[in-house]
Amino acid sequence: MTAKKLAWWLCILLALVVGLFWLLTSSRELDFSGPDSHSADLANGELLFHAGGCASCHGEALQGGLEMKTDFGTFLVPNISPDLEFGIGGWSGNDFLNAMKFGRAPEGHYYYPAFPYTSYSRASAADLLDLKAYLDSLPASRNPVAGHDTQFPWSIRRGIGLWNLLYLDDGPVVDLPAQDEQLMRGRYLVEALGHCAECHTPRGPFGGLDTSQWLAGGPNPDGDGKVPNITPHEDGIGGWSEQDIAYYLESGFTPDYDVVGGSMAEVQENTARLSDPDRAAIAAYLKAIPALPNEVD
Amino acid sequence: MARFSRIFVILALLFPLSQALAGEAPQEIRHEVMEGVRDAAKSVGGMLKGELEFDAGVVKESFATWADAAATFGDLFPAGSESGYDTEARDTIWSDRDGFNAALAAWSEAIDAGIAANPQSLEELKPAAGPIFKQCKACHEDYRVDDEG
Q: What pLDDT does residue B149 have?
């Protein structure tokens, strides 16, 4: 083969690779029929707002601005208040569903998975529209937030399309008997809006959750130490009763009457606002999932 | 009799000194005080959790334990007791003493309100104990080393 021919083949191969990348990473807006006819339940929206812990990252006034330092760069949490200019007040129901379920912005680009849409994708459209209605009922914030500061190759947002093919799955993680309503509710709260696994599960090389280690503890995003194992293994919270778990989520007290600490302190302020049956459902789920030991470092 | 009570007062005043002479460091004393606070929280929390029967007498005792602890706790952090004895005291206690004292005062106030409410049922206990418990977390978050993370 002559050098010229080889060059041609290489060009064709490169074009194919680029074309395939383009095709695989194209973001398509999904059309959810009916968001406009949805009659919103604001009380349910408020409950889901606390279950999702929105304010813990986006701020009490939803103003955004919190810096999340990760291995992939520094992410700035956006303003999600209903301000038309700086927030998300101009979004349609369909825009909101595409963002929450697919990590897709109304402008068509992908969000970085620092925004836990991989968990939120498991939430029902009706619940998400209630949540949107609740967000829209809160005051607007005129706080501008700058863009993210990410390193190459993570700075190419289009690449997230590939990442989504690998990690975006709106199915349940743990198989549980569907007839047990409490377990179903617990699974929904933990795996979807609660996004507990985003910290309590370790991640693989590209930052996707390692579901084989579901809730078995992960590195602490704030620095030192580890986020605890919350499976029913003795390394986790196997020694806690369902009542212990529910009371911890309500009061912040461990069974030894130590108080909740670290980033969980803010999370517990959210879980304190859930109902008793919802906290009991979370507890039942956490006792029903596979018991896993801590990974040896 | 008067003389006896005077001696008693002097002894009482000397008690902290005698503890120091007996070799108990402030780090150890405050750890013991906190253990007492924790045990009282176990009793009251157990009732709120539904594990223990409501008992107005135990509640009263627990509130008194907390009141005693709150009254003396701030004195147990003298200069030089920042480290050692596995203390979980955070350096913020010394760098932000006003904030620490304010947090203790807020706890003390919540306890006083709880004592004044004198709860006689589980329904009355909830609003009385809630604000006291809330202060545990508030203070630990800012002034204690978090051993989990």
A: 38
Round to whole Å and give the CA distance between A209 and A117. 12
Q: Which residues of chain A have pLDDT under 50?
A: none
| Option in B38, B137, B149 nearest A252 (CB) | B137
Tell me the C-alpha distance between B138 and A269, whole Å: 11
pTM reported for the whole predicted model: 0.84
Q: Which residues of B touch A257 (CB under 8 A)?
A: 38, 41-42, 45
Per-residue model confidence as pLDDT tens digits over B23-61: 789 999 999 999 999 999 999 999 998 899 999 999 999
**Over 90: is that where the pLDDT of B67 sits?**
yes
Residue B43: closest CA among B22, B28, B57? B57
Candidates A153, A101, A90; CA nearest to A126 is: A101
Q: Which residue of B has its CA nearest to A259?
A: B137
| Beta-sheet pairing, A226-227 with A67-70 | unpaired
Give the number of residues written for chain B: 149
Burial B62-85 (b: 16+ CB within 10 A, else e): bbebbbebbeebbebbeeebeeee
- Give the side-chain half-sphere CA count within 13 A for B97: 9
The total of other beta-carbon atoms located within 10 Å of residue B89's CB is 21
Read off the pLDDT of residues A145-174 as tens digits, 9 standing for 90 and up: 888 888 887 778 888 888 898 899 999 999
